[in-house]
Specification:
Immunoglobulin-like; 3 domains; four-stranded antiparallel beta sheet; about 50% strand
Length: about 325
């Protein structure tokens, strides 16, 4: 609200709907020529708002009704706020519930309001790939604010990519087309196998057996060192392909649960001498490795921080690594 003669104004009276708002209210900003009111609770879609603005002049004539008006809030269709999971995240192949929080209208940096009856839940659709779920679907739930779908197992196998979108299926008022799907939010999920990776404080031998859910190497180790058997040199690297092991230095002991898509087949490319080998994405008995080629000489060794080198006796676990000695140049392939 702007007024051209601020010196002639002695008092201001402002009423929004049924609330009288004093100038001392923190929602009010007043300078030499303007009056601004910023609501602390955002308006919701289709809300009918009325306000009155009075000024009292300095010569004491009294209040003058300068403006009385009302308007209807017209915001965009219901959309999702803080979707879970976030875009480009990974989910487990053992089960997942996709849930979004629906807000009626545009909310900017404000906490969500309580559920509003104006949200037309019958028009909401949660689309996962080619499947469309409504709030009354057997796998769905709706509490007035959260729209959730428990995905069936047919969606959840490692390597599957889920494209999820929230849509509004109300009739298009501009074209009169029934059930026009207007996309209001979409994101992408990657399905992977969960696996608990145990990382010891200090140095250890690790591997990345497939496509991993997070920056496993970057977030877990401050140093990552590989070994070039041919030149017998260690080297620094940011990533290592399947079948290759690396030394990783961690500042703490921890267990991370990662989601990953394991490679079905891993090939070990070995040169004469000691080779730093990475585990495949599945459990592998060390005897099975030695049986693949007569050039492989047992035993194999792993390294545990605080203990040192030990002979690998049990099965090799995903994300682990070992030292393996070969007499010749040989490539061996292992499959689950």
């Amino acid at each position: 609200m702007l007024f051209s003669s601020p010196d002639a104004v002695s008092d201001i009276f402002f009423k929004l709907n049924s609330e009288i708002i004093p100038l001392s209210d923190e929602r009010v900003t007043l300078d030499d020529s303007s009056f601004v009111f910023t609501p602390d609770v955002p308006f919701f879609h289709r809300e009918d708002v009325s306000y009155r603005f009075f000024l009292q002049d300095t010569i004491g004539i009294g209040f003058s009704d300068t403006l009385t008006a009302n308007f209807v809030v017209n915001l965009r269709s219901p959309f999702a706020r803080n979707p879970y999971p976030p875009d480009s995240s990974w989910v487990s192949d053992t089960g997942i519930v996709v849930s979004v929080e629906i807000i009626d209208g545009l909310m900017l940096d404000k906490p969500p309001p309580p559920p509003r009856p104006l949200i037309d839940s019958t028009s909401l659709r949660l689309c996962v790939n080619d499947s469309v779920f409504s709030p009354d679907s057997p796998l769905a739930s709706w509490d007035g604010l959260h729209f959730s779908v428990c995905l069936p197992e047919t969606f959840l196998y490692p390597g599957e990519t889920l494209f999820v979108s929230l849509t509004d299926a109300r009739d298009n008022p501009d074209y009169g087309e029934p059930h026009t799907l207007e996309e209001t939010l979409s994101w992408q999920l990657f399905v992977g196998k969960p696996f608990a990776v145990h990382i010891h404080r200090g140095w250890g031998i690790y591997s990345c057996p497939g496509v991993v859910s997070s920056c496993f190497i970057d977030t877990s180790f401050i140093f990552r060192i590989g070994f070039d058997t041919g030149r017998r040199l260690f080297f620094y690297a940011d990533s290592f392909p399947s079948g290759f092991g690396f030394w990783g230095l961690s500042l703490e002991s921890k267990t991370d649960t990662l989601f990953f898509v394991p490679d079905d087949t891993v090939t070990f490319h070995l040169l004469p001498g000691w080779n730093l080998v990475g585990a495949p994405g599945f459990e592998l008995d060390i005897e099975d490795i030695f049986s693949l080629s007569p050039s492989l000489v047992p035993p194999a060794y792993e390294y545990i921080s605080g203990i040192g080198y030990i002979e690998l006796a049990g099965p090799l676990q995903p994300f682990g690594g070992l030292w393996l000695f070969s007499l010749d140049t040989v490539s061996v392939e292992v499959s689950e």
